[in-house]
UniProtKB/TrEMBL annotation:
It comes from the Eukaryota. Residues 16-43, 97-124 form the KOW domain. InterPro entries: KOW (IPR005824), KOW_Spt5_3 (IPR041976), Rib_uL2_dom2 (IPR014722), Ribosomal_uL24_CS (IPR005825), Translation_prot_SH3-like_sf (IPR008991). SMART domains: KOW. GO terms for molecular function: structural constituent of ribosome. This is Predicted protein. One of its GO terms (cellular component) is ribosome. One of its GO terms (biological process) is translation.
Length: 347
């Protein structure tokens, strides 16, 4: 019986299909469709086509086991085309990303001389810089190179020459003679003094005369007593503090308004809060556009704006809380009626 061959009708045979078998449909409307068996019965088999994501029910008699052949040495046609410049830039990444987190000094433009820290890069030649006090901590995106690494503020170099390295006072290796600058002796003043009888008529020539400080014409800020300025981060500058207030230690320093106590104003200088009498304070005036300011007198008293057009006499201002995408000049206000204000980051 081992070598006996028997012929039986094809209709009496049934494929032993199981869930998970990979099969191919041989005929019918779905001829050539390949997929996996996901369900079966005596009269039908359910096949899932992964290309269309659909399930097809056909008779088991028109289904044949199928195995995808292995294909070696394939090469994607998409990789044959050369990379475009845009694709190369994406793969290369941002060449200025190493600057993020660096402390820098602005060397040109309206904010020349101010320190800040790079928050992110914007394109090839722009960076997003966060300014440090006394300037309000606002993000400004209009800085361009050159930016120079700045020394720590606590060092002597940072105090005398902001943004530039200070030479070693006792170098181990003497400087070459080519780098030693010879200072010529000064025989006398380059500009002669006028006649003695003319000095009283021209006080600018008098060495003992004092040049007026910026903002000396501003009134003492007694308007801070008004409740409309409560909780506003107004910038105030200390003047004429020598010798009656801390022996002039805080002269010309700029601090932040914290409140009024009796006849004094609470001002934060760094990590300290001082109570400063009104006569030693003036409002810090704006110097350029994009600054946030508060009006301390006039019909707009207590309102906050952002400067769109700066002028020595008048500033074109837009409402700070405006929801318009493109800000416009809403009102023109006298510059001597404005005080610089730090914008609250929680707003």
């Amino acid at each position: 019986m081992e070598d006996v061959t028997t012929t039986v009708p094809f209709s009496s045979l049934r494929k032993d299909l199981k869930v998970g078998d990979e099969v191919c449909i041989l005929s019918g409307d779905h001829k050539g469709v390949m997929g996996w068996v996901v369900n079966q019965d005596e009269d039908y088999v359910c096949i899932f086509n992964d290309r269309t994501g659909t399930e097809i029910e056909v008779s088991p008699g028109i289904v044949q086991f199928f195995t995808s052949p292995f294909v070696f040495g394939t090469e994607s046609s998409e990789l044959k085309a050369p990379f475009t410049d845009a694709q190369k830039r994406v793969m290369k990444g941002d060449s200025n990303s190493h600057l993020v987190g660096k402390q820098v000094l602005v060397t040109k433009g309206d904010f020349r001389g101010y320190r800040g820290r790079i928050k992110s890069t914007v394109g090839e030649k722009r960076v997003l810089v966060e300014l440090e006090p006394p300037r309000p901590r606002e993000l400004l995106t209009d800085f361009t190179y050159p930016l120079e690494p700045a020394p720590p503020p606590s060092t002597l170099a940072g105090f005398l020459f902001p943004g530039y390295p200070f030479p070693d006072p006792q170098p181990s290796v003497p400087y070459p003679a080519a780098f030693l600058v010879q200072t010529p002796a000064i025989a006398g003043p380059s500009t002669p003094f006028p006649n003695s009888e003319d000095i009283s008529m021209t006080p600018a020539w008098n060495p003992s005369s004092q040049t007026p400080c910026r903002g000396d014409d501003a009134p003492s800020p007694y308007w801070l007593r008004d409740n409309c300025f409560a909780n506003m981060r107004l910038s105030l500058r200390l003047i004429n503090t020598n010798p009656n207030f801390h022996r002039g230690k805080h002269k010309d320093k700029c601090g932040e308004f914290k409140g009024v106590v009796g006849d004094a104003v609470k001002v934060q200088l760094g990590f300290r809060i001082l109570e400063v009498p009104f006569p030693y304070l003036i409002p810090e005036r704006p110097e350029c556009k994009s600054q946030v300011v508060t009006v301390f007198t006039g019909p707009h008293k207590g309102s906050q704006f952002r400067i769109k057009e700066f002028g020595e006499d008048f500033c074109g201002c837009s409402i700070l809380k405006s929801t318009m995408l493109l800000r416009k000049v809403d009102v023109k206000i006298a510059t001597n009626q404005l005080v610089v204000t730090a914008q609250d980051s929680r707003r």
